[in-house]
Queue: 4 jobs
Job 1
Amino acid sequence: MSGNYYFCAMIRNLFSFLIILFCSAGITTAQAFVRTSDLFKRTDGNYRAGQLKITQDPAIDTLITRYLLASENHKTSEGTLGMEGYRIQIYYSSVRTAREEASRARAEFLNKFPEIKSYEEYAEPGYFMVRAGDYRTKVQGYKYLLLIRKQFPNAYFVPTVINFPDLNIK
């Protein structure tokens, strides 16, 4: 009888091992591998316009995949991909009327600084904030901070995910 008990325990352990193995295999296959050639596919339907053939080391595809997986955590408040940088926070509160006050602060900011993009954001458990600008470094946004502080004395830099800079500006 003790031999039968050990046999059942061994089967139970093997079964547990197989379940863990299949679950972990499912998790690892959920991470998609990206090929560089997939990034440059035509989306306009005109496949006769030309072809792009990329010849490169397969390790580059691995690096691109790692970069894309890491950048999933870099979403801006609007939900688009971005990069680490700074914005100038001009309003932050969680009082009952914070939503209305944030809207008023943003409207006032837009009236005084129409050339600087501003964002009204929400953070759990009930904080409303107004942030302005997309600066890669504090040095890049320092002159704007000085201008903004003349109208909003409590303004300060906050590290956040910002929109990618516009490369078409000349």
Note: The chain has a mean pLDDT of 80.
Job 2
Amino acid sequence: MKIKPNYFIIPLITIIVSLTGSYITSAGMEWYATIKLPSFTPPGSVIGTVWTILFILATIAALLFWNRGQRGLKFNLTVIFFLLNGLLNILWSYLFFGQHLIGLAIWEAGLLGLSVLILIILLWPKLKLAAWLLVPYLLWVGFATYLTYNVWLLNK
């Protein structure tokens, strides 16, 4: 059995996105400790665990897509949205934790959620399992957007 390069490249991209976002988040934790948070804010350990699971599921979805997707315009569009999603994921951490722009982070989180929804729609016709693997990500981003909105309300 020949191991394909995408089995290393796709997880590596996920790790880079995850570590970059984590680095930015860690740098903003001193500020985060000073703001008011809604009562339903999960503990940091829960948030970290959820993100780890979501990154694993998204990586599996991307691998399924890459290995089974038919090359062409839709394939290229899906690749672009996977990459865009990674950039939007990092951008949210930068806006919220790096720049403390909570209001802008709400809108950016909405775009992040939209990118996940578009990925689900693009994958659904031929790769339902890959699409289903992204549903928890969509739900979590929806919750995170709502949480960010409530943080903004408490701190504006």
Note: The longest helix spans residues 128-155.
Job 3
Amino acid sequence: MFTSCYLLAADFLGKAVPLTISEVLRDKEQMATGQKAEKYTIRFREIDKELILSKPTPRPSLRSSKSRRPSTGPGEGITLEPITCEAFGEIVACIRVEDQRGSLDQATNW
């Protein structure tokens, strides 16, 4: 009934999808709590929806730990895959991000 301008795990219908990054942005996004938080978002060539990245996992591919800037950028391919993960003590739907080198980062959908 209500569509989101951001990607959700349900958008992938259980399948991994390869996409090409068109732009990586750092902006303040309004969270479900109503508060604004600084987040990275990724825009893609193939689709209109954007992906909001959560905090990096132990092996982040889309942010460098020193500069906190994206290390994967425009023109590069990534694969998004719907999975489940633990967030705030609950199992929730998430999107796994895999870059061309096979490194992973994970973005939780709220």
Note: The longest strand covers residues 17-30.
Job 4
Amino acid sequence: MLNKLLSLVQAGRPAIGSWIGFADPYSVELMSDLGFDWLLIDTEHFPIDRQNLRTILMATKGSDTTPVVRLSSNSVDHFQTALDLGAQGLVVPMVNSRADAVRAVEGCRYPPEGRRGFAPTRASRYFQKLEEYVEKAKSEIALIVQIETPQAVDSIEEILTVPGIDGIFIGPSDLASFMSLAARITHPDVTALIDKLVDRACAHSKPYGLPSWSPEECMSYVERGARLMTIGSDLSFMAGAGRKTLSGTRTLLKQRLAVSLDQNSERREHI
């Protein structure tokens, strides 16, 4: 169960991923084969239940991408579901304090280090590789906590020093929302807090990342030391490609109609 995401970030190299919001196995399998280092499956804001999650994780099997699940909350039952189904990494939302970070680590670990229940059904290949899974689970599961509130920013020093945290993922949209600046992620007050988080993560040599929506934006953070980057999502790729194709078609249609009208006008003049 070699974790490509962890291998890259531990080697100091950026891991480029994307977001999964669709549960259809065709779209997941397609995204898995595009070459992303990791895929972030969002069970927090998309209607992905346990059955959907099982299907999604199965659809990533055989690809080189690392499936990472963003949990719906920092609750132990969500950890167990995602990990038992075979997730190789977790993103835990709304980690606002050291206690929240410790709770996340405990959710990932079996006793005595944690409180994860024991039944790694699919993760251990239906118990056929149980000992191998138990041996490698601790070192091959990526635990990333989300920093997305001013409270979390205030507690960042304590969060970064919790053993077992493999990185932080900054949530600009929620950060702006909790600052009463919803949808204004480029507001100077928001970017100032993001800059603070980037600075503190780098000072602690802790991998960090955040969502990006263009190659240029992604590279701007990679050049600042980011190693846990995502670019786009299945939803944005579909919407963007559809919008671009439709726009291009309408532009050509308008041009062709204009040519046709000109030609008809010339014919009438010759009659």
Note: Residues 10 and 207 are 8 Å apart (CA to CA).
